[in-house]
Amino acid sequence: xxxxxxxxxxxxxxxxxxxxxxxxxxxxxxxxxxxxxxxxxxxxxxxxxxxxxxxxxxxxxxxxxxxxxxxxxxxxxxxxxxxxxxxxxxxxxxxxxxxxxxxxxxxxxxxxxxxxxxxxxxxxxxxxxxxxxxxxxxxxxxxxxxxxxxxxxxxxxxxxxxxxxxxxxxxxxxxxxxxxxxxxxxxxxxxxxxxxxxxxxxxxxxxxxxxxxxxxxxxxxxxxxxxxxxxxxxxxxxxxxxxxxxxxxxxxxxxxxxxxxxxxxxxxxxxxxxxxxxxxxxxxxxxxxxxxxxxxxxxxxxxxxxxxxxxxxxxxxxxxxxxxxxxxxxxxxxxxxxxxxxxxxxxxxxxxxxxxxxxxxxxxxxxxxxxxxxxxxxxxxxxxxxxxxxxxxxxxxxxxxxxxxxxxxxxxxxxxxxxxxxxxxxxxxxxxxxxxxxxxxxxxxxxxxxxxxxxxxxxxxxxxxxxxxxxxxxxxxxxxxxxxxxxxxxxxxxxxxxxxxxxxxxxxxxxxxxxxxxxxxxxxxxxxxxxxxxxxxxxxxxxxxxxxxxxxxxxxxxxxxxxxxxxxxxxxxxxxxxxxxxxxxxxxxxxxxxxxxxxxxxxxxxxxxxxxxxxxxxxxxxxxxxx
Length: 627
Description:
Layout: E1 14-19, E2 24-29, E3 32-37, E4 42-48, E5 57-60, E6 66-71, E7 74-83, E8 86-97, E9 102-109, E10 115-121, E11 126-130, E12 136-140, E13 148-154, E14 162-167, E15 171-176, E16 182-186, E17 191-196, E18 202-206, E19 211-215, E20 218-222, E21 229-236, E22 239-244, E23 248-253, E24 256-262, E25 268-273, E26 279-284, E27 289-293, E28 298-300, E29 324-329, E30 333-338, E31 342-347, E32 352-358, E33 367-371, E34 374-378, E35 383-388, E36 394-398, E37 404-413, E38 416-423, E39 428-433, E40 438-443, E41 452-457, E42 463-468, E43 473-477, E44 484-485, E45 497-501, E46 504-507, E47 510-515, E48 521-525, E49 529-536, E50 551-553, E51 558-566, E52 571-578, E53 581-588, E54 591-596, E55 601-607, E56 617-619, E57 624-626
Parallel strand pairs: 28-55
Antiparallel strand pairs: 1-2, 2-3, 3-4, 5-6, 6-7, 7-8, 9-10, 10-11, 11-12, 13-14, 14-15, 15-16, 17-18, 18-19, 19-20, 21-22, 22-23, 23-24, 25-26, 26-27, 29-30, 30-31, 31-32, 33-34, 34-35, 35-36, 37-38, 38-39, 39-40, 40-44, 41-42, 42-43, 43-45, 47-48, 48-49, 49-51, 50-51, 52-53, 53-54, 54-55, ...
């Protein structure tokens, strides 16, 4: 889950990143420096800092918009001129070169309060220069030979300046200006990154895949990355972030992994914390730039941490092992259909299985969906069976001529539910169900080859939206007389699409749809994107100002995109509103994430053995249930 910024102006790997302020972000792509407006998720401007060197690091000034940029043996000071959310220009103030590779840069003040530039070089030297014209202030050589791979500074006053060095031989050294270095600890490989922590400890990352924290009480090793670790940054309050060759950033609290942010297939090269430490920016080897909010939710690392329930043995002899065909999750109990044709109810509090029903037609096939208060079971013969509440009473209606291939259930309001089903032939049936009634309507798809994957109804009942397995979003104007009692079967011509957007999510499945209280349509897809659409019965007044790629006209409605966010590197499976808050269930790398979409906050993260398994998430005002 990130803010989805992209760093692809020169199609090179991102190499460095730093926050200039809580709003402005600087990121390096080769020798080019790009400036971003983080809240607006927008690129503002770029500047070629070096012609023949890659930027290796960026140090933002603590009091203004100057940045100190270095790469190879070169360094430069730039000023970012930004106003009214626009980057007017980037001004070069001074620059220079050293005789050795620069490993770290830092802003420091002398006793008169004048700002200086401190540089840590590859053989342990510390050079202090004027930030105004680059003239030399002082130079200090390391009294012991070392070859630095990484370095970091601490202290704003020149008299308090300390430097930590990670060497190619695995040593972590700390020293002051004009003092001998002290060995803090070591790794089993080259040290790629070091950082001073607020509590006085030092963090280091290495070729040995470990993150180590060196404090007064010894060292703590943090393991979890599956490849080399390139960088780390302190967030205060016991939180630390590391970036790795495995394409992820890990958020640590002590020795515990609090969260994992998957960014790219390989190499997250650099990370930086915002001044308020509520966000982390990271640049990847694929040119990606992500901003991750630091809001750690509940995290489950193994399936053993989840409560497992075994199915009861079937009556009589069975040659086929018993397993779950599908289930519907409720607050007090879950309804489950087994491959032997049994329908069972599991009560959480009593930890007890109760038989509900058994039918030979359910053997080997069942499509199950549900929500709190209603469970629906689609059968091979085209019929749909409904179970309301916690009772064993059921209703059954023949809705399709062949097998039910897809079922979706959503609560509408107190005691009213919308149920959608699709048959083998692609025909879609919309059921409106209450405790006393069951009415159905036919939904006509644009093509017999269209396969439905999601559906939702607006709060005022005016619009129906359907998502397809090939990326399409179809909007229907709901007519007053479209429903007929289920007992009488489907009659009339059904509902026809008022507007069709055939590739709203490219060619990826539109796996989730939802309406907010204002009638805004939200879609989620297997492309990892969440998009919002405004539906209008007539042409928008500013249609001529809306890009053609964001607008679609139909026979009875207009659709245009108002927002597009890449929420996941995997896919979005469900969208649910809890009050005004939109939550998404996403899958990526065998993990399920429950995400507060617009706040970009992970509420729950659990290992799930892949999205091919059936997972359901039930949201309440103060609780979440996952099955």
